[in-house]
Amino acid sequence: MSPRRPSLLSAAESAVLPTVLPAGARLAARDLTLAAGARTLISGLNLEFAPGEIWCIAGPNGAGKTTLISTLAGLQLPAHGRVELDGRALAEWPGNQLAQRRALMPQALRDVFSASVFETVLLGRHPYLAGWGWEQAADRAAALAALAALGLGAFAARDILSLSGGERQRVALAAAVCQDAALMLLDEPLAHLDLHHQIDCLKLLALRASTGGTIIFSCHDLNLARRYASHALLLDGTGLVDAGPAREVLSAGNASRAFGYPLLLIESAGHEALVPAH
Amino acid sequence: MTASRALTIWSVLAVLALTGLVASLSLGSVAISWRALAHAMFQPDGGLTDEIVRSLRLPRAGAGFACGALLSLSGALLQVLLRNPLADPYVLGVSGGAASFALAAMLLMLPWWGVDAGAFAGALLAVVFVLGMARREFWRADPVEASPRLLLTGVVLAAGWGALITLLLTLAPERGLRGMLFWLAGDLNGAAGAWPALLVLVLVLVPSMLAAPRLNVLLRGETVAQALGVPVARLRLRIYLLASLATAAAVVTGGTIGFVGLVVPHMLRIAFGNDQRMLLPAAALGGGTLVMVADLAARTVVAPAQLPVGVITAITGVPVFLWMLLRRRH
Question: From the CA of A227, how many Å to the nearest CA of chain B?
């Protein structure tokens, strides 16, 4: 770790702790079936996501990770069944109230128009705006805190069109953090990030979970998932789903089956890692 | 962007608009002094200068302002709707429909109100076409980026209208051609009055300003907008209808004045940023001032002859815009 880099966690703690969530969000999938065309991605899933839990959704390309996250966020309707937040079906939530309760960070965005990083992150406050829609001082403070939490303080005035892929990714994450919702859904939040930014991001998510947040993210790095997620949901693309504690679900046997490639679990000095067998 | 910064920008633009209005009222074939102008505005007694100011110059300046404001506002809205900085009020064919019907009305030798009614009917028909063909874009709920399909639908329909306009021009008798070409280039000479266009301006601007925070979010893409609680399909439909109404009213009043709707929102974006809450009213003020002043030039530079105002907006706008664009770092 470079000594010049400001300590992230202290900034993150000071930024994230004061806005501690009023009550944990309980998300539940009830008999949830997802399909893409004629293909069933998930069939009859019953699962609860509780406050304090960090769920990693893993699976091969096209297995339905994005579809699942999008459905859990209420942006897409399932083929069958429903998703409930705090005991109420997502479809019954008014848009604004839902947006104050759950944040979604989608996969890489395509931007066309210039905007500053600060303005972009500040959009996360949209669910809280009233009247003609001008932000209050508290909204600005929340955006600055989210920028600080992701080590983006120095980027506030930068144009989003001039950012690298990893920087954009962190800006999108900051916008989701700024939305201040008890439930966070993140689609590939670690993509394009350097290892130390991946770990910072996961620590930030862990911190939010430890203060009562519910976190669900998709991820391709099974080792990071095993280390930081409390639970995992493994899709194999044929409708079968394995869900439970992360280390049990993401075992060498399960992962080999789902990804169609043999993996081995190796151990050294108390650390474990899944590696390709050949 | 804060409310106070936006207010400052609007105030500066409003002062420019007022200056342009005073210039439009006092300059022309008969120069009118400040004193006479104040007299005509506040204590008219029916004298010649009062008549020139009140029944000739004021309606024309008002119509010019309304046209420019509507076109610029419509351009700003469509650039967000299509997430494309090159969109202008005419890109989805509203003006093509209006022009086709207006030219047909001229061909039939209808009076001015017949031409205006034709233009409005044509604009409505063009809107109905786009709505019908792109209904999936306006009514589906899943977060799919709809802009490219909508843009293509509109562009192809606009091309169809273009062909129809060429056909009508080919069929037109020699003596009618000049009036038709002036109409197509944008001309305020025959503008019947400013009130209908100014009324539409208010009717479009207020709902646009109310939707502006949601438009800021929509600029980040459909998925982000939906995740932040914005009903995307409904918002898109509303923006499309507002922009179409604005374009239709402007085209009925002043013909197809080019360039304003593309360039004014861009210049303001380059100068002050892309916050829609600031940009939409600023675009209305800026576009209105530009067309009002351009029309002043159109009726004075080669007086007693008059130029179509659309020629002036394009001739002055192109170099200024290129300079602003090339001067930027990115």
Answer: 28
